[in-house]
Write a structure and sequence with these properties.
alpha/beta; Rossmann fold; 7-stranded mixed beta sheet
Length: 270
């Protein structure tokens, strides 16, 4: 958090100077000119959109016309909001550190992104009405994307959420108590470990490209990302259905199975 390509470049340079050779693969998220990957900035938000679309299909929620509320409108929330809007899902409410805004007919997402870049936040955007921070959680919407900080959806506001689908763009935005409340109310929660994995996936792509000194086009990167995210989500969904558990529990089942299988195949070195 609170880093950008310039900071990652400084980290790479510091490490490189200490080992005596340029080591582009030591960190990811670098500027493209210094071994960064195309598509990395938008990767997490694109992953949020990708698994969100897959989940919506499975619960019978048409994307076109589905109202979206987004908390946090930076690289993750801004990208996800832009992609949902382009798919016909209007973004009706946005909240960030500067305040909350809404427009029941849908916000002009490109204009809002430009406003955020110039002013630093959503506050004061001309194409929306101001919204009290706590009222954000009760906005009429079908899809809610918490893409800011951890611990934002709690037992105090989970009961107000009207969305059918919550896609965790942030790390740990839902407390365990809130998770239980949403589950009991029939709200499908796409956990962070799968929903926001697009960023680390393209970070892996960046690492591979750095070590091979062969760089892919942005179309190739996006296509690989979408395929991986769709396959990962499908696997988690299947485990959730087979065991009748939440998607969050299913992700832990999948992870534990992979670790235990690898341990059994590899053996224990004494």
């Amino acid at each position: 958090m609170n880093t950008d390509g310039q900071i990652m470049a400084w980290m790479m340079d510091t490490y490189s100077m200490n080992v005596g050779a340029t080591a582009t693969g030591v960190v990811t998220g670098k500027p493209v000119a210094l071994g960064g990957s195309l598509g990395r900035v938008e990767a997490t938000g694109r992953g949020v959109f990708t698994v969100g679309v897959q989940a919506a299909k499975l619960i019978g929620l048409p994307i076109e016309g589905a109202r979206v509320a987004v908390q946090g409108f930076g690289n993750v929330g801004g990208t996800a909001g832009k992609l949902f809007a382009e798919a016909g899902a209007p973004v009706v409410a946005v909240q960030d550190h500067s305040g909350a805004i809404c427009n029941a007919k849908g916000l002009d997402v490109p204009a809002l992104l430009a406003h955020v870049r110039s002013s630093g936040g959503v506050h004061g955007f001309a194409g929306a009405d101001a919204l009290a921070p706590e009222e954000f959680w009760g906005v009429d919407c079908e899809i809610l994307i918490p893409a800011a900080l951890e611990g934002q959806i709690t037992q105090h506001n989970a009961g107000r959420i009207r969305a059918r689908l919550v896609i965790e763009g942030a790390n740990g935005p839902t407390t365990p108590e809130a998770d239980d409340i949403l589950h009991d109310r029939g709200v499908l929660v796409l956990p962070d470990v799968i929903a926001n994995a697009g960023g680390v996936t393209v970070s892996y792509f960046e690492w591979v490209q750095d070590f091979s000194s062969f760089f892919w086009s942005e179309d190739e990167i996006n296509a690989r990302l979408v395929r991986i995210m769709q396959e990962a989500f499908a696997g988690v969904w299947q485990v959730a259905q087979e065991n009748q558990v939440s998607l969050r529990t299913a992700t832990f089942i999948v992870a534990c199975q992979r670790i235990l299988n690898a341990r059994e195949m590899r053996g224990l070195y004494p």
